[in-house]
Amino acid sequence: MGDPDGVGLKSRRDGNDQMAKETELKFLVRGDSWRRHSTGTRYRQGYLSTVKERTVRVRAAGDKGFITVKGINVGATRSEYEYEIPLADANEILDRLCERPLIEKIRYRIQFGDLTWEVDEFEGENRGLITAEVELADENQAVSLPDWIGAEVTADPRYFNSNLVAHPFSKW
Question: Which domain does 105 fall in, by range?
Answer without folding.
Answer: 21-171
